[in-house]
Amino acid sequence: MKQLLLLSNSTMRGHSFLAWPEEHIKTFLGSEIQEILFIPYAAVHIAWAGYKKAIQKRFDEMGYAIESVYDKGDPVEKIHRADAIVVGGGNTFALLYHVYRYQLLKPIQERVAEGIPYIGWSAGSNLACPSIRTTNDMPIIEPPSMDALNLIPFQLNPHYTDFVQPDHGGESRDDRINEFLTINKDMPVVGLREGSGLIVKDEHIQLVGNNPVKIFRHGEKPLETTDVANLFPNFRIFLT
Amino acid sequence: MKQLLLLSNSTMRGHSFLAWPEEHIKTFLGSEIQEILFIPYAAVHIAWAGYKKAIQKRFDEMGYAIESVYDKGDPVEKIHRADAIVVGGGNTFALLYHVYRYQLLKPIQERVAEGIPYIGWSAGSNLACPSIRTTNDMPIIEPPSMDALNLIPFQLNPHYTDFVQPDHGGESRDDRINEFLTINKDMPVVGLREGSGLIVKDEHIQLVGNNPVKIFRHGEKPLETTDVANLFPNFRIFLT
Predict the structure, then answer these.
(1) Reported pTM
(2) For residues A135 and B138, what is the distance between their CA atoms, to the nearest angstrom?
């Protein structure tokens, strides 16, 4: 069974790292998983080793051991051996660049299809989408393609907000998503507010957190809803 | 002589289209130029024909005729015949996608090197940079490369703002630019606030508008300044 936990963000501003999703992560991973494989490639400001340490501290507290895909050894083999994959946030372009560089796209897809749990937040959630074309991140590095893991049949917009900066002429988040829809008419976009996430189990979707999602489809008014279970009736088709 | 007018934005929120830069555009183009060639490819929400109409109205008022690169005829030939090139704002990825699609990168570079004036705002200013990797735009469409016109030896960040959205965990603009610098250590980034622009004449740079620029270099504190004339002492090297 395909199992994904796709979180908007790791941390609410002013709260501690991975505090809000902790219970969701523990429930999702359950007690049979002993070790997770961490993918740190989205980190740009901090070194991958430092990112691993921060993650390790929190997953230790939750009762899971951690290996980083960047520890000594072959990254592809690590994916093959992993019991669960956790992809941290940061810059989505950097993340995808290194996923291509180490040729991990297909291995991750295969393992997720086999049923190992996948957890992502922010850039890690973008990576689960058909492409990274609804990321908020600056394209600071150029991956060979914007095609991503394609684990779900829609795009996510993590850190979704309908806040509009006063007296600023730049595009709002809704403007940007609507531009995406103008060019990609058949691809829905799910705006995931901070403190929200989706659990996907095969064709079933469940919302976690306290905020509704906002669903954007071309030519339709955006839909604010907590009822995500039936949003994608053709979901099964895409997952096979 | 290479001549560029690179504007942060076309329009201040609450003011009319191209109001703030009107005098700068007229001074820059002068009275010998009679017709400008407009590149509308950044438009996503509005049709290119509609974008041309909006531009036409304003350039008519300034005393310039306008042709669109998308009017009937060969776009490359239009570039070859142009007396001045004006590249409008919108989505930078869409703009670059179509510039590659119509194979206009080299023709525009050649004409600018020959001395015809180039005006860009927002996405049109991103296009003048070595790459579009400091755009704020969502990567809604995938150009074959992020390499752009490379008319200046630094990156611009149009619509630059140091505003930080309250209670939001997403990256600030400064975070994003610093991520760019971490990966692109030798490439300065000039944050152009709204209502600002640069005039570049060969190796000479002049600031227009009422706001200082903010210069970001790797490993240095960002520098807020109105004195742009001597910021890039090696500028001549890059322009030859």
Answers:
(1) 0.95
(2) 7
